[in-house]
Amino acid sequence: MPRQARLDAPGTFHHVIIRGIEKRTIVKDEVDQKNFVSRMGEIAESTNTSIFAWSLLSNHAHIFLRSSEFGLSRYMRKLLTGYVGFYNRRHRRHGHLFQNRFKSIVCEEEPYFLELVRYIHLNPLRAGLVKTMEELDHYKWSGHGVLLGNAIHEWQNCDYVLNYFAQTEKAGMSLYRQFVCDGISQGHRPELVGGGLVRSLGGWAEVKALRRIGQHEASDERILGSSDFVETITSEAHGLARHQFTGEKQKREILLTVTKVCAAENIEALHLQSGSRRSAIVRARKKITEILVINLGVSLAETARQVGVSTAAVSNTIRRLETKKSEYSE
């Protein structure tokens, strides 16, 4: 079955799950952990992405965020590509580190916001990385301790979370911690990360109850929310997809980019499709790829058609560009 398109629009809440390829380790020591967390935060600040909760474990990570105009896919590509470059250089390895595609679940703020914050921040306790709530309060590799004031990450949006509990920070921290404690007995919450209708309705019991009375609810495995919320998000996504597919503005931007870059390199646009490896043509392909994918958000497949190479070649070019940028920022 072909994978479904990523759902996103500025201001959308996402629960993002990143896993190591074949469940392998993604952080080996504190140096790796610090790099991943600082990179996650720095990119969030520079792209106006709000992070409310996060947990970094040995072979996977959870991030609960609200996307910005920069977009979820671009944020995650920047984070993961940069970190893989750092990790591979440091550990003298090559190849993929993460599963090919991160998992993202669009979340309806009410009633799931606080449930997801709690679920994500209890991950280290459920995984046995800490044994008690007191240890979790001071665990450095999740946002829980930040919400309690035991660590400082300016990029984490603590006020938004704590304001759910109280108007003052101190009272909010106390009530938040009690809320997390109350969730320990709930154990693993498959309805928060599972698929489709089971997730949206809160479990199989609810699904079966509605089926018994003949009520059918809209569902989508990419969404955690009510039937109305699912229908709203999917209809907006379908409308956006149609707009993007036929969008004259994007076509004009692509044509303008190709024309300008080719003129600067003193080549004809048709030379891009020739398969030539002449230096001017290679430079033009690289520059066009950078502008179309990173700046304009054009798909890899469409970019590949414009510059006359494979989608894999475009992906490799973007990976090299972002790895190079991350090296400059370190």
Structure overview:
With 330 residues, the protein is of the alpha+beta class. The protein folds into 3 domains: 13-192, Alpha-Beta Plaits, CATH 3.30.70; 194-244, no CATH class; 247-329, Chromosomal Replication Initiator Protein Dnaa, Chain: A (Orthogonal Bundle). The protein contains 16 helices and 5 strands. It has helices at residues 30-47, 72-90, 109-121, 123-126, 133-137, 144-147, 158-162, 169-182, 190-193, 196-201, 204-212, 227-246, 248-264, 279-295, 300-307, 311-329; strands spanning 13-19, 50-56, 60-66, 103-107, 223-224. Strands 2-3-1-4-5 form a 5-stranded mixed beta sheet, sandwiched between helices. Strand 2 (50-56) and strand 3 (60-66) form a beta hairpin. The protein is elongated, with a radius of gyration of 22 Å. It starts with 12 loop residues before the first strand and ends with a helix. The model is unreliable at 194-220 and 233-246 (pLDDT under 50).
Between the first and last Cα atoms, what is the distance in angstroms? Answer: 40 Å
Q: Just name the CATH architecture of the largest domain.
A: 2-Layer Sandwich
What is the H level of CATH, i.e. the homologous superfamily of the largest domain?
Transposase IS200-like
Query: What is the CATH class designation of the largest domain?
Result: Alpha Beta
Cα radius of gyration in angstroms: 22 Å
Series of H and E elements: EHEEHEHHHHHHHHHEHHHHH
The 3D shape can be described as: elongated
What are the low-pLDDT stretches, counting only 5+ consecutive residues below 50? 194-220, 233-246
Calculate the mean pLDDT score and round it.
80
